[in-house]
From TrEMBL:
The keyword Transferase applies. InterPro entries: Acyl_CoA_acyltransferase, GNAT_dom. Keywords: Transferase. PROSITE patterns: GNAT. Transmembrane segments: none annotated. GO terms for molecular function: acyltransferase activity, transferring groups other than amino-acyl groups. It comes from Ceraceosorus bombacis. Residues 198-225 are annotated as: Disordered. The keyword Transferase applies. This is N-acetyltransferase hpa3. Residues 8-164 form the N-acetyltransferase domain. Residues 205-225 have a biased composition (Polar residues). Pfam families: Acetyltransf_1.
Length: 225
């Protein structure tokens, strides 16, 4: 469903938007210093056009017909409501035209779609150091009091190396961020030994992507509109 906001229009992405979306997508990935395989990019765009897929994408278009940015969202089940909640995963606006309202228009497009299906909530993640993006986000939503934890198979969890199930996850409070890697350590009765282990954890090799995001002030998965 298309929506008008001033001179901007937001609408579901179309097949003819692929070239421009790929250009924005490349900028989005470059910002996060990550590489996405072509087969993933191709599959992602195909999902946008599949009416039976849960992934939804929208674009912001200028009065002249130029695509200025995009957003990706998806509904999913929740144990706290009968209706699906909506996760806004990606948000990116061409850096050359920021502060023109495209980011807000895209967020409100997702809100409108959520209302249409009677979803009780839309949520997204933001890198905690991205204060610039938060200037917009506090106007269109409220900050949650919850931290986000992530895991992937490449994390070196010591607890998977035959250590007892009695493990706990330790991280540095001094440098905590949603991207901070958690490492499993065995529970010890010796507090001094535990403290030393925790301090060593703080000195472990940092995530290159996480460091670059902190330097650039980027969000977790949502680029500043």
């Amino acid at each position: 469903m298309s929506q008008q906001r001033g001179t901007l229009t937001t609408r579901p992405i179309e097949s003819g938007d692929e070239a421009r979306w790929r250009s924005l997508w490349a900028g989005y990935n470059a910002f996060y210093e990550r590489e996405i395989a072509e087969k993933v990019t191709k599959t992602t765009f195909a999902r946008f056009l599949d009416p039976d897929d849960v992934v939804q994408a929208a674009v912001a278009v200028s009065a002249e017909g130029h695509v200025l940015g995009f957003t990706t969202s998806m509904p999913h089940r929740s144990t706290s409501s009968i209706e699906d909640v909506v996760y806004l995963q990606d948000l990116f606006v061409d850096p050359s035209i920021r502060n023109g309202g495209a980011g807000r228009a895209l967020i409100e497009h997702v809100y409108a779609e959520a209302r249409r299906v009677k979803s009780p909530k839309v949520y997204w993640h933001n890198q905690i150091h991205n204060h610039r993006a938060q200037l917009l986000y506090v106007k269109v939503g409220k900050r949650s009091d919850r931290a986000m934890y992530t895991w992937d198979p490449d994390y070196k969890l010591l607890g998977w190396l035959g250590i007892s199930e009695d493990v706990f996850f330790a991280s540095s409070l001094r440098s905590f961020s949603p991207q901070h890697t958690l490492t499993a350590l065995p529970i010890r009765d010796d507090v001094s030994e535990l403290k030393a282990a925790s301090e060593n954890l703080c000195k472990t090799e940092p995530s290159t992507t996480g460091d670059s995001q902190r330097r650039n002030g980027s969000s977790n998965e949502n680029e500043e509109p």
